[in-house]
Amino acid sequence: MNEVESQFSDQSEGVHEDPRELSTRQKVRQFFFRIVALFIVLGLVYISGIYQATFFRKTPQTIEQTPVSALLDSDLINLPLRVIIVRSDGELGSSRSGENVLHLIEQASTIWDQANINLTVKEIAEFEVDDSAISNYFLEPRAFIRSLPGYTSGVVHVVLTRSLGGLNGVSYGAMNTIGIADFTTAYDFRTLAHEIGHVLGLEHVEPDTGQLMFQGANGFTLTLDEVIRARKAAARFL
C-alpha cells in the first residue's frame, strides 16, 4: 500500500463509529421518544375525560370524619363561611344538594376541632350561569368570583362547581375564597379543610400523608405550630 492509500485508509477508519456508542445513542433516542409518547397519551387520556372518570369520585355522605381533640385549651373561634353553589344547564355546574353542602361543612369542621375553630355557615347562595362563564372561572377566577352578587371580604367564600379542571380544590387566599369540586380524588370535606388551611396561612407539607396540609391525600392532622398560626389568622374574621 502506497503512502496516499495509507492516508486515505486511516482517514476512512477514523470516521467509523464505535458500535457501542451508536447503541447508546439509539437507546437515548428511543427513551426520549417513549417519554414524549407517554406525555401525548396522558394528555389524550386527560382531554378525553377518562382521567376524570377513573380517579375522581363524589364523596358518599356515609363517610364521616373521625373526631379529633383540640391541641390547645383555648376559646372557640367561629370562622364564617358563605357557600356559593354554582349551577348551570350544561355540564360544569355543581349538582350538590343543600343536605350535601351541610355534610361537607360539618365534616370539614370536625377536622378543625383540633384547632378549636368552628366552620359556621352564614349563607348558602345559588347562582345559575352558563358553562362559558364557569370556563372563564377557570381562566380568570378572581374576575368570576367578584362578579357573583354578595362578595365581601368579611367571610370565607366557598365556591362549588362540578370540577376544577383536574383539581380537587383551590384557594385564592387574598380573596378569602375557596373552590371545591363535586368530584375529587380525596374526600371533599378533607379537601375543604385543606383549602381552609391555605386561607389561614398554612403551606403544603411533606412527606407525611397523614397531615392535613399534605397535598392530594386524606390526611387530617395538624401540628401545634399550625394550630397556633391558623388561630391567629382566623381571629381577623371575628
UniProtKB/TrEMBL annotation:
Entry keyword annotation includes Transmembrane helix: yes
Keywords: Membrane, Transmembrane, Transmembrane helix
Compositionally biased tracts (Polar residues): 1-12
Residue ranges, annotated region (Disordered): 1-20
Gene3D superfamilies, per database record: Collagenase (Catalytic Domain)
Transmembrane region(s): 31-51
Coiled coil spans: none
Recorded superkingdom: Bacteria
A single GO molecular function term of this UniProt record: metallopeptidase activity
Transmembrane as UniProt keyword: yes
Protein name: Peptidase M10 metallopeptidase domain-containing protein
Organism: Candidatus Harrisonbacteria bacterium CG10_big_fil_rev_8_21_14_0_10_42_17
